[in-house]
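Follow-up to my earlier ticket, as requested here are the two runs.
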Amino acid sequence: MLQSTKLGLVLSGGGAKGAYQAGVLRYLAEQDIQPDAVSGASIGSLNGSVVAGSRNVHEAAETLERVWHEVAESSPLKMDALARISHEGIKESG
C-alpha cells in the first residue's frame, strides 16, 4: 500500500524573516503546493496562523502579501509627530 507524502511548513522567528516567508508562500501558491501542516515561532507563528486560518495556500499568500506591504508602507517602528511631541512634553514636565 502506497502512502501519500505529507508536507509540513516550518516558519522560523526573526522579524524581517516574516516578509521573506510571505514570498515563500507566494511561490508555493504559484506551484499549487498546499502544506498539510504548519508550525512557527515568533513572527513565523503569526504568519503560520494566517496559513492555518486560510482556506488554501493561495488565500494565505494573498493575505500575507497585503499584510507585509502594509507593514512596509507604514512601519510600526516609526513615531508620528503627535506621539513625539506628546513624549517631549512629558519629559519636560517630569
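Run two:
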Amino acid sequence: MKNKIRILSLDGGGIRGIITCVILKYIEEQLQKLDHPQARIGDYFDLVAGSSTGGIIVALILFPDETNKAKFSIQDALDLYAKRGEEIFNVHFWEHLLNPFGLFKEKISQKNIEKQLDEVFNNLELKNLVKPCLITAYDINSRKAKFFCSHEAHDGLENFYVKDVCRATSAAPTYFEPAKIKSLYNQEFILVDGGVYANNPAMCAFAEARKLDFSKILNHPDKVDFPNVNDILMVSIGTGQVLKPYTFKEFENAGKLKWISPLIDILLTSNAETVDYYLQQMYNDLGPRNQKNYYRIMPELNNASPEMDDTSVVNIEALIQAGLAYIDQNRQLLTDIAKKLIKNK
C-alpha cells in the first residue's frame, strides 16, 4: 500500500502568522521526539501551499540547506515574524500624518518588506525549494490567478526569485502597493496578495496535487501519483478566528469608503470558511478511517488583535499566547498529526 500525499496549507493574515508558527513549532517538536531529533517540518510534507503570510512561511520551511533538506526550523520562522515584523509593518509618523488610515495610498511602505525579504532569501530561486509548493498571488493586469509552483519552475518560464514571490503573495491591497516583478525569463507581472481569492489555499493545493506524479517529483516510488481525496492527508492552518460583528445600524446608509475595511475582513473570512466547508464535505463522504485525514486548525484570537499589522509588543505576545492556548487544548490532535506525518514519510 502506497503512502499518502501529505499536504500543508497555510492561510494569510499578516502578523497573525505568528499563531501559525507557534502551532507548527509544536508539531515539529513532536516530530523531533517521535522520529528524529533534527526533524524539520518542511521535510514531512509532500506539497506545501500558502497565501500572503502563509506563503512567506512556506518559503521559509522549504528553504534548502547544502544537502537539499529543509534548513530552517519553525523557530527560525517565528523569530522572523516576532523580530522583523515591526520593521516590515512600521508606518513612519509623517507617512501616517499625510495618509491617515491608508485612505489616500497604501498604508505601509513596500521598502521595509522588500529589504527584509532580500536579507532572508537573497537570490534563492523558486525551483530550488526542497518540496513542491503552491504560493498564491493575483495578476491585476491579466486578471487571473497566479500560482507560483516550485515543481513547474525548472523550465525557466515559471522560475522566480523567492523574495519576489513572497513580495507578490503578501501585497495585500490597502496595506502594500502591488508587486511589480519579473520571472527569471524576464516576463513581467503586476501582482497582489493571493488572499483576495484564496486566503485559505487548501482547495488550490488539493487541485494542484491531483495533477502531480509525486513518485517521480519526489523520487519516492512509494508515493501515490495523481492522488484523489482518499490518498491525501491534509493539514490546513488558519491565523485566528475573526468574529467581529457588524450591525445593520452601522451600515444602513454606509458609502463605499466606510465599507472598504469591513468588506476586506468579511471576504477573507468567508473565503476561508467556504474552502473548509468544501473539504469537510469531500472527506465526510469517505470511509471512517480516511474521514479523519483532513485537519482544519483555526485557533481563537482570545486577547490578540484581528488587525494584520498590529506589531506592538503586547499584541505579539497575545498572538503567541493564542497559539499556545490552542496547543494546550489540542495536544492529542497535534500529536496524532505528527504520527500520521511520520507514518506516511
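The only thing I checked on run two: The beta strands are 5-10, 47-51, 133-139, 144-148, 179-182, 188-193, 232-237, 294-297. Let me know what else you need.
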